[in-house]
Design a protein that fits this description.
The complex is a heterodimer of chains A (about 270) and B (about 170). Chain A has 9 helices and 7 strands. In chain A, β1 (about 50) and β2 (about 55-60) form a beta hairpin. Chain A is about 45% helix and about 10% strand. The longest helix of chain A is centred in the N-terminal third of the chain and has 38 residues, at about 1-40. In chain A, α7 (about 220-230) packs across α9 (about 255-270) and α8 (about 245-250) packs across α9. Chain A is an alpha/beta fold. Chain B has one domain: Immunoglobulin-like (Sandwich). Chain B has 1 helix and 11 strands. Chain B has a 4-stranded antiparallel beta sheet with strand order 1-2-8-5, with no helix packed on it. A 4-stranded antiparallel beta sheet of chain B has the order 6-7-3-10, with no helix packed on it. A 3-stranded antiparallel beta sheet of chain B has the order 4-9-11, with no helix packed on it. The model of chain B is unreliable at about 1-20 (pLDDT under 50). The chains are: A alpha/beta (about 270), B mainly beta (about 170).
């Protein structure tokens, strides 16, 4: 009798285990996957290597494993200046937990930045930015623009315009709690940008003959043909230029960028299908 | 540095490109034509997109980028003086005290001198309207709007007519 109960118990345990397996396989996992697709994949933060005002080499990849607040700003930008004391405090408070701020100044030269750095006793590295770096980060739409990068090197939030420091702190704390190297599953951003809206570019896209579109897979003749296609279409952003011209003079224009990428997709299919 | 001014409801930036500037510029002359060797009043009217402002020519804070009108040098046409209006003192959340700004429609003046040796005809004087715009949350990169003043030179025997008087009324010429 006792033996029978043990066998029954084992059998029931197996049934439950198998049931849970199939429930996860065909119900929970697909639902999670759908949620992941709906929110989109958080993009990896483009690498860069620049020298700080203090002369230190700042390689973003050296910060893997830390949570990073990457702040694009300028000394002539009032909304930028007002955020910086908050960043200084965040750096002080969370440095030992693996948090770092990196400032990217979009000033024309380092002199005013150095003066500001000293006046405000900034406690994190500041590098001089460039158009190219801005384009790698999807085009800087206005200053300040800040990115919150997780321990896994992915961008989890993007904030354009002055943002209350409590918003940053909430996001930083959530990401600090994540295991290094692991994606954060359900990041709850208090900011304005969903994962799918965080656009970054690759070096191939930034350096392309058609800025923002990686044409490396096309032959030189095909590139010429593709550029001719773009030279016939007018950018609908209102600039008055063709898509090609708009890409060349304003690589950050999101309208011509999307139009060029859509055109490339069609062109590539028709030539390489 | 160039940035992108992209239409974001959040920022209220119009258009999808920095090629649609936040400031649009229109020019006017006080007379329909000018005589060689004379001067004429010029008006430069800047229309600044709603919710944005640009800094006074003499900014309230030394780190703010001033608004400037830069006329190119030509042998026969020269703007001797640019008249900048007084800005509007406005308080923003990101600053402790009000700053002097231009917003909406702002009128600038100039005194254009025409060379005595200039023959009758139509001439253009290129210029740049340089500014840096912000709204109450974010700033756009410093920018320049190129424009030109078209000047019709006529012989001194041809009488001149006033034009655009209403535009010049609000500009404080010396």
């Amino acid at each position: 009798m006792k033996k029978g109960k043990i066998v029954l118990g084992i059998f029931l345990g197996l049934v439950i285990a198998v049931s849970l397996f199939f429930v996860n396989q065909y119900w929970i996992a697909p639902a999670t996957s759908i949620a992941a697709k709906a929110t989109g994949e958080y993009p990896e933060a483009p690498d860069f290597s620049l020298t700080s005002l203090s002369g230190d080499k700042i390689d973003l990849k050296d910060y893997r494993g830390k949570v990073v607040l990457l702040d694009f700003w300028a000394t002539w930008c009032g909304p930028c200046r007002i955020e910086i004391p908050g960043f200084i405090e965040l750096q002080r408070k969370y440095r030992d937990q693996g948090f770092a701020v990196i400032g990217v100044s979009m000033d024309d030269g380092p002199q005013p930045v150095r003066e500001f750095y000293n006046q405000f006793h900034m406690n994190y590295p500041v590098v001089m930015g460039s158009d190219r770096l801005g384009e790698l980060y999807g085009g800087i739409l206005g200053l300040p623009t800040s990115f919150i990068i997780g321990r896994d090197g992915r961008i989890y939030a993007k904030h354009v315009g002055t943002t209350d420091v409590s918003v940053f702190e909430s996001e930083i704390r959530e990401l600090l709690a994540a295991e290094p190297g692991h994606k954060v599953g359900n990041f709850q951003t208090a900011g304005y940008t969903a994962a799918k809206e965080i656009q970054v570019s690759t070096p191939a896209e930034v350096n392309s003959e058609v800025p923002g579109v990686d044409v490396a897979k096309l032959t030189p003749a095909e590139i010429k043909e593709f550029k001719a296609v773009l030279a016939k279409e007018h950018c609908t952003c209102g600039c008055g230029f063709t898509v090609l011209k708009c890409r060349e003079v304003d690589p950050g224009c999101q309208t011509s960028l999307q139009e060029a990428r859509d055109a490339y997709s069609k062109f590539s299919k028709s030539h390489h299908s | 540095m160039r940035f992108v001014a992209v239409c974001l409801l959040l920022l209220g930036v119009p258009g999808g490109s920095s090629n649609r500037p936040v400031v649009q510029v229109q020019t006017f002359l006080a007379t329909t034509a000018v005589h060689p060797g004379s001067t004429v009043k010029v008006a430069v009217v800047a229309r600044i997109v709603s919710r944005y402002h640009i800094n006074d020519h003499k900014p309230s804070l030394n780190y703010l980028i001033p608004t400037q009108i830069i006329f190119r040098k030509t042998p026969s046409l020269k703007v001797e003086k640019v008249i900048y209006p007084r800005g509007e003192l406005t308080k923003f959340a990101f600053l402790d005290s009000p700053i002097s700004i231009y917003k909406g429609e702002t009128r600038f003046g100039g005194i254009l001198r025409v060379s005595r040796s200039l023959r009758p005809g139509t001439y253009k004087l290129p210029a740049d309207f340089a500014y840096q715009a912000c709204n109450d949350r974010a700033c756009l990169a410093p920018a320049k709007v190129p424009f030109e003043i078209t000047v019709r030179v006529v012989p001194t025997s041809v009488p001149l007519k006033s034009s655009n008087t209403e535009v010049f009324e609000k500009i404080n010429f010396p």
